[in-house]
What does this fold into?
Amino acid sequence: MSYLVLARKWRPQNFEDVSGQSHITRTLQNAIRAGRIAHAYLFTGVRGVGKTTAARILAKALNCAKGPTPTPCNECVQCKEIIQGNCIDVIEIDGASNRGIDEVRQIIENVRYQPARCAFKIYIIDEVHQVTKDAFNALLKTLEEPPASVKFILATTEPHRLPETILSRCQRFDFRRISLKEIVQRLGDISVREGLKISQGALIAVAREADGSMRDAQSLLEQVLSCFGTEQATEVDETSLQEVLGLAERRMLFEISASIIAGDCKRCLELVTQAAEQGRDLTRLSKDLVEHFRNLLVAQLCGQKKPKDLADQERAELLDLPDQEVIALGSQAANVSIDTLLDYFELMAAGEDEIARAANPRFILETLLVRLAMLPKTLPVSQLIERLTQLETRLVSEREAASVGMKALAPRLSSNVSPDPVEAITAQSSASAISQDKDQVWRMFVSFIGKEKKLLASHLESGSAVAIAPESLTIEIAEKHHLNYLQDLENLTLLRSFAKRFFSREMTIQLTLLDAAPAKSQQGALASGESGSEMVKEALRIFGGSIKGVRTDKI
It folds into this structure.
């Protein structure tokens, strides 16, 4: 007897054996029990989810010697012939090779004859979307009103390509992707029957690679079976599959994401080098990273401000992953904000296309991971507002304390008595704290603008906040071309809108130019490269130059 592949050898023979499609098998069984058998069915879904298998089981259920019955016996002559594929009353047609009007005319001619041995003559047309438009038009009348002994079962992966006139004449059943747990369970049963020793982690890796297709999973399992055989002393583990199937190891995905979250650029490069030396497909690795960051985002959304048990339950419902991996995702995403995870996902998803098209995907992947590791950690707006409220409260209290201190010092100053050194130091430290808080607010304000308008923020980076009052903001700009840009009506209006959103109230913006004298005093330092704006330092770092002189524009 010729060898049968696992997908054919272990094909389900009853509705109960079909994995992941209980909503369809239950409906078909109930329809058979009630005698509500339609004249035409349409089975849709991605490849390898059981469309043709369900069609054959339905054909057995209708033509079984005990039938029509929801549980075919698989022992009668009709059932055995359908299983072997040589039943003359169950005709399977490939829509890709029988797509013309001549083939459809032959079907129309044959439906007039009664079944030879079975109760129903059943036409199973696979890949029916390949049939031409003229052939569909010729089939319409027969499909709508076939003889009582004829049933049509159409199967397709692209239902949107079928004419509306065909869809309206069929009962449609959408087959969903099979969950990872159901595929693992089925693969485990097959492994036991085939005598293959394979670990649970390896089965999970094979099932994940199948992407919801049972047939793909069984094909991969057969590849593993061909490589290791059934007489091996040790079981096949996940590490062994890396060599056979070239699958991305999940542990490396967690290590890469941990390095990105920690901001460790060097470790990211080391992991990409390790993956390249092991011969892994870097394009596939980047695709897996996109999915991994999506899973981290879902894990964080489920676990946000919820008890641990409830969070784990919601993660298990939304993530089609093993329980251990769901817990690991929740632990890694616990200390990362949702905004940061969104940034990671968006940049990784955008870079995946570039990696797939690149001649050297390694270099693009390395650059992308370094960019992710250097990405600033974003904070929610609510948290920023809360910090600003706390900061404002502290500033008011320190100002009141400084005012009280000055009133206490006034009599001494008027009587030419030197103030107490301790009180002077206290007043000086309060003023320093106020100045430090003002600088911190300014940096937060520039960072807030930079998230939406990086160009506007780059012009503000050269300036500083001179005064932050409840309803006004005085900004001192160091260079004239930055001031000219900010004084533009459109840019100034945009700056006021950002200030209103940041401070949660209307703000008056005052722009001034830094005095010429301080600017001149900085020329020596700038020329020597000791200080300067961050933009100057970054330009020197990129182009490798040095400052020969500084020219300040006159007002």
